[in-house]
Amino acid sequence: MASLTTKTVEKIIRAGLAGMTNDGDGLYLKVGRSGGGSWIFRYKIAGKSRDMGLGGSPEVSLAKAREKAAEARKLSKSGVDPLTRRDEELERQRLEKETERLAQATAKAKATPFKDVALDYIAAHRAGWKNAKHAQQWENTLATYAFMVIGELPTQEVGVEHVLTILKPIWTVKPETASRLRNRIELVLDAAKAKGLREGENPARWRGHLDKLLPPRQKVRAVKHHAAIPWIELPSLVVALEKAEDLSSKALRFTILTACRTSEVLEATWAEIDLVAGIWTIPASRMKAGKEHRVPLSQAALDLLIALPRVKGNNHLFPGARKGRPLSNMAMLMVLRRMKRGDLTTHGFRSTFRDWASEATHYPREVCEQALAHAVESAVEAAYRRGDLFRKRQMLMDHWSRYVCGRQEVQGSGIAINEVELLTNPR
Predict the structure, then answer these.
(1) Where are the beta strands (DSSP E) in 220-304?
(2) CA gap 139, 122 in Å, rounded
(3) pTM of whole model > 0.70?
(4) Residue 420: which pLDDT band, with cuts at 50, 70 and 90?
(5) What's the chain's Rg over C-alpha atoms?
(6) How many whole angstroms separate alpha carbon 45 and alpha carbon 229?
């Protein structure tokens, strides 16, 4: 039977006498040494006595304490430990709050705009890309074509209609750009899915998806190769270049003499050049195939390099106007335009070199391909080819140099070069 009243409880707590006062049916008012009062329910479960706190007084009134004690007593009589049940309830509430928190966090994350995910993707992969230009191309294409449509749209909301809105205007006009753009959007959305920012089908996927909505890029427009000058006409162009004193013309002449790519030449530094050995070693990080490439330098190429000015604070062979940077990618194209040869491209001189090597010399195909640093298509051939055919390439580039500089006699449709000389006499 209950023995306490509200006034009695207040009196006991005011007195501050430490101890337990029984209210009946296992409910006690406990006064601690510090003087505060709290409610305790004492019960037995499986033969063991246990105390269960019901809260402090006056926060928990006498009536509320009796109500809580009655609920706990009912559980204990049914064989259920009230403390275990309370712990389970607290854990359930904790899990509910955590689930709600995670749901809110997920909803917030899924609201992340496509632009933010794309820039994060570029930042995460920048170190793995060959050069800064690749990252810049990513940013430029997405900024030019995609961000205006889906830049501020949550990735979860990006759908097929958005992707088509981006691609259709340029799919037939700029098929190469459109294809790369589609792939970049697909990769960003895949990354978003991996982060849990979106679910379901990737709307930018080509196979089995967009290929049903857009024509194949190959059928939109025939592949346009880099414009190249016929090899028979090249010496006259090089002779004209030799008369020019500007750095861009020298860079173009060096590009022709080495048959290298534009970026390989413009990014070249003096640290890569061995003037004594006549070797230019391009590190793997700057090569398209990701493999170090040794370029044999002909006497004409060496003479060109020796005559180049050195710029303090800029280690590039062909320094640009900006501190520490080389000439721009457009520098050599502008030279061709000034020569009224805007129909040509810098990269096209590699094709001219390859045509000359095939039509006017007897050098084996693998030597010519190695000179261009082309990847070996056959896995078997790649496995057996351990060297870089440097000695043979040195002879090839010497003959190329003599030809383009107008020092090799031309007869009819071919060059009068003795086959034995090609294989034995480098210079």
Answers:
(1) 273-274, 279-282, 293-296
(2) 8
(3) no
(4) very low
(5) 40
(6) 98
